[in-house]
Each structure stands twice: as C-alpha cells, then as structure tokens.
Amino acid sequence: MIDFGNIIDPSILLDGVFNVTLTATFIPTGRQNPKDRLPADLIIPLSNLSPGSPNLFAIEDDAGATTNVTIPDNAMEAYVEIFASGNSAEEFWYANTPDEFLPLFPESTGLIGKGPFREIQLLIDGQLAGAVWPYGVIYTGGITPTNWRPLTSFGAYDSPTYWIDVTPFLPQLLLNASSHSITLAVRGQGQNPSFNSNWFVSGSIHIRRGASASRTTGKMRTYHAPDLKISTTGGTLGDNQTVWTRVDAYREFLVESELRTSEGLKVVTFKQDLHFINTAQYADDGWLQWVNQTSNGTTSSIHGDEGRLRDAFIYPLNIFSNYSNFLAQSGGYSSEVNQTYTRALQPPTDMYRSIHSVQHARGSVEMDDWPVLRHAIRGKGQTDQIFAYVDGRGQTYFRDAATKNDGWIRDVVWGTLREGNPPVPRSQLYGPEGGPGFR
C-alpha cells in the first residue's frame, strides 16, 4: 500500500516535491534464493477496500475496524502484517500528556491529552491475538519542519510495518466454513475513547496453503493473555514551576496450538514480551517540554523446531520543544530531537534484516507578526544521521550523513548496496555553515 498525501504551502516551509520509484522482482518457481523465505500463497487485505481512495482505516474510537474473512481449509500458516500511523491530535502521541495532569496547564498552551502510550491490538473474533507497540515516526513537517530539510526522519517516507503470527488461531479460524472477524484497534490512556482522533491503520493476512486440499485441524493448548500492566505517576517540583510525569507499561502474551496439516503434526508457539517507559517534564506553563521515551521488546514464533518469526527492537526517543516565544509579536519555536531505530527482524515471508538508525536533529522557525494567521518567515535546521543495514543475503548499506540549513554538508556511503544508493554528489555539498537556509 502506497499513499503519498502531500501538502504544498511555502508559508509553512512545506514546499518540497518527491519522486517515487517502484521496483518489482519476479522469481520463477524453484529459483528462489535459498536464504529467502517462501512468499505467501494467498494475501487477504485488512482495509476498507475502497476502489478510488486510500484503503486505510481511519480509526477514531476504541471499537477499531473489522474485516470479515474466510480462511482456506488447507491453510498451514497465517501471519498478519500491520501498518499504523497516528495523525492530527495523534501525530505526536508520544508527547501527549496524561489526562490527570492537564488541569495543571492553561488551555492556551495547547497540550494534548490521553497520555503517551499507544498499543495497536489485533483481535480475532474479539479475542486478543497480538499487539504492536509502534515506532514514533516523525513526518517531514513534524515538531520543527526545518529539522528535516533535506534529510528526513527515519520512516517518514517508508513507515515500518509489524508482524503477528496467527497460525496458532487456525483451529479457531477453520472451525467452520463461515467468516471470522479480524479487528485492528488502537488503545491509549484516556477515556471514551482512549485516544484522540485519529489513527490510519491497515493490514494483510499472509497465508501458506498445503500442497493438497487436506483440511488443517488442531487445538489450542495454551492461551496466556494477562491484562496490560500500565502505571502513571507524576507531580510538581519547585513550587509548581515544573511538572513531571512517568508512564510505565508491560505486556506479555503467549499462545500455543497443535496443528495437523498436510505436512504432518506440529506445535506452533507465538509469544511477545514488550516494555515501555515515557518520562516528561514541563516548564513555563507547558511551553517548554522534555520527553524521554523507550519502547523495546521481542515478538517470536516457532513452528515445530523452526523459528518462523523474530522481531527484536528498541526505539529510544528524546525530544525538547521550546514554544515559550510562540505567542510573541515576532516569535517562533524550536526543538531538538534524538531518535534511534534499532530492529533485527526475521519476517515470515522474507529474508532476515537488521537496521540501526541514529538521528540528532535541531532547528528553529521564526514567525511574522501578523495578528491572526501567522507564517514562518525564516528558519534554521541541522540533522546528523548514522545508518546501518545488514540482511540475510550478506548485503550491507552504511551511511554517515549531515545536513544544515537546507543543504548537505556530509554524506559518506559504503557497503555492497552503495551503487544502487550512492551518496550525494560532492558538487552538491556545502561547507560547515550549510545551505542557503529557509526564507
């Protein structure tokens, strides 16, 4: 699924364009790379199935979005791939304030509630089948737009997706010939609903079928899905001059089934172990905000004695936002962001890959003095990134890049994939002070 909705508005420094290249590789049967996983025999979309508009569900309440599906009788394996993106009041969900502390700030600050914790749930016939704790993608206009020119935040144009093995639920899904409900739901920390509007969510079921029409049977042996453990604490410091909050969360999940397929009898186990911590501090009535968040965990599945899925990740995120001069006659705002994406993923239908991205961005925007509709008139921004990619074929890609004031000042690339993704030409590199800036 590809959806590039673009805003062109020079007054807010959103005036870029992009080129998209799609590449498809077709491999004849029997010629797959031995290190690659076999692709799915059948893919069932989890979407609104609209023929003329983006297929994403726009989720606005705790009910989520449901697709009714019928699984083939000879399905041997089934995996769900999930995409999720917070938008509008949920775009910066990781910086949202727990509701119990919002009364400490004036409404003029514009802080958003429902807390910083978000979970994407997959439910089969209303029963939890797995969870996703998403990476906080910062899009190109996010936090401070000048941070991301021309080097964008990791994931801005290629948001990560997440896998859940639902093979242990096949006995339930194949129990009869009728359809079953697959629901994608979002959970936050608020009430009715638990999150703000809205989240774009979609997914797909990847199914492998047996060589014969033999019906898959089995039984679920273990289902361990305790309630999410989550706590919120906080208080004030220095005669109420500073407010602090802390959110801790933990989820464990385990399901195990015995399946008899056309290939014989096997035990399938799917488990998750997820951890989350978010601390925040606020000063100057909330116009100054510090956010420190880390989510980490593992998702894995074993079929018989073979590992089919493993996803180990850690996503540290640190943000400082300064809006203390935002309401001044000729004011502005600034930020500093440190974000890491470290993930080792063995997907069920593709080769192993590991990605490590570390970014440090800082920037500022100055506003004009119009009394009502204000515009950005100039800005500064600088971003450094170290990126490393390694996959199961032995392919590698490493990059050390830096940009400043809308120009590249460093770009070094090495690895086996360098030719396909070369560095910026030396003729396009600026000196230490960077490019022409933002005006």
UniProtKB/TrEMBL annotation:
The lineage of its organism: Eukaryota, Fungi, Dikarya, Basidiomycota, Agaricomycotina. This is Peptide N-acetyl-beta-D-glucosaminyl asparaginase amidase A N-terminal domain-containing protein. Signal peptide: none annotated. Residues 420-439 are annotated as: Disordered. Pfam families: PNGase_A_C, PNGaseA. It comes from Leucocoprinus birnbaumii. It comes from the Eukaryota. Residues 2-224 form the Peptide N-acetyl-beta-D-glucosaminyl asparaginase amidase A N-terminal domain.
